[in-house]
Automatic annotation (TrEMBL):
Residues 427-516 form the Adenylosuccinate lyase C-terminal domain. Keywords: Lyase. The keyword Lyase applies. This is Lyase family protein. Pfam families: Lyase_1 (PF00206). Residues 12-24 have a biased composition (Low complexity). InterPro entries: AdenyloSucc_lyase_C, Fumarase/histidase_N, Fumarate_lyase_CS, Fumarate_lyase_fam, Fumarate_lyase_N, L-Aspartase-like. The keyword Secreted does not apply. The lineage of its organism: Bacteria, Bacillati, Actinomycetota, Actinomycetes, Micrococcales. Belongs to the class-II fumarase/aspartase family. Residues 1-24 are annotated as: Disordered. GO terms for molecular function: lyase activity.
Amino acid sequence: MSTPASPSEHPATASGSTGSDGSAGLSGVPGLTALAMEADAGLLDPLSSGTTAVVQSSDANYLLHLLQVEAAWTAVLAEHGMVTAAQAEAAAEAADPRHLADYDLIGLARAGQSGGNVLIPALKAMRARAGQAAPTEPGVSSAIHVGATSQDIMDTAMMRMAAQVAATILADLRAAVGSLAAMATEHRATPMVARSLAQHSLPSTFGLRAAGWMSGLAQAGRRLEDATAELPIQWGGAAGTMAALAGRVTKARADGTLDAGTLDAVTDAFTLVEDLAQRLGLQAPAGPWQTNRMPITGLAAALADVVAACGKIANDVLISARIENGELGEPLVAGRGGSSAMPHKQNPVLSVMIHAGALGAPGTLAQVLTAAGAANEERPDGAWHAEWPALRQLMRTAGGAAARTAELVSGLRVNTDRMAENLNRVGPLLVSERLMAELAPLLDEVGSGRARSGKERLQEIVDRSLDSQHGQQQGNDFRSLLRTALPDTVSDAELDGLLDPANYTGEATTLVDRLVAEYRNFAEWSTT
């Protein structure tokens, strides 16, 4: 959905002047209206801009959810005889996406300052629109928002929006997991060097690294699936007691309109809320959760997990794509990643954007958690308000990270020759751990007052070889030094086999198979 245009114009103020609302003038920007200047096009958020998730979490889409929650509630009341069918139809007409452009987003945002939330002016605009849709039907305005409070509508709309965004994120994660499962299987035995603390550590395989990426994404995806499987409706009224709704139910029962014609009707306030939850595709909790923000914190944490899992992949690609490593390359797309000043560069911009998201998401999550911990009494005085932009930003960051990661891994270029070259850069020293276990016992030196353990002798050989590599001594080849120290019971062929890094990848291939078997089905996995 494209962001709808507003029918009203907010003309730019004169150069150097200040608008009537206190905003700075648009000096030096001819032709731009205040509407254009206030709109967020995502210029500073390239990670999420242009993605489905950012459209689904737009102001326009959130407003649509607000309107549709109100319309759904009116429809539920009509089903139980508490408002008329014509009134519900008018509410539905006011919430129809085709009429979204009739709502002035920036005007609503400005008007929302008066009451501290946008639902107040949005409800006023919806009632006016509904009245226009059914000009001869009395009571249309009062039939909308019956027994509800602003938080009921806003929290419920946010849950509905979160479910929509999460479905998009999960689709991208499943695609990425599928790509990584195939990549891990293809390269299950492709040797490469493992690195710890930024240094070469032991031989491994690229398949194992890809399987690790896959398992992280799948785990994060399953957490998001769990967090959004039972997103709850919020309905408590002004103070969480449902008093206004209960009063309306009692009146409708006394008037004989509640489920008129139905024998033994048992409709109460809880029945209505449960019906609304079913209509909206949400869960009906035992009670309101105005200041119990666990549904929000669980959702936010799951979104942050998605970003972290994507960030891990991006960080590895950034390191491996360095020219001096050259092991990986991002998908080649015309016009992307080039440098106007340095034509030789191919910047890994997908990974850069994902990495930026991974740096920012923890702070955004902290804002959500801080707001939850600051919630007080039956309606937070600012904590709830601080939650809105942070939660939405997490949706957008996770959505952008998942989309960019799916693209990244689907076309990742793998340079196996450079992996082999880097693996052999340290040479047989890379398997020193293995040598300590298998050869050190053969190097034990006893007697003649010079008793030294095999580990000490092997370490001396390693040190002499490193000195040779660093130019401090010449001719101290590690294999030659080791061959001289070892007894003849170790053949040259056995020694060469022990020194070959490709022969010391442990259970890497089996681990790949186990991880792929465990997580590849996430690509088709969903709860029922």
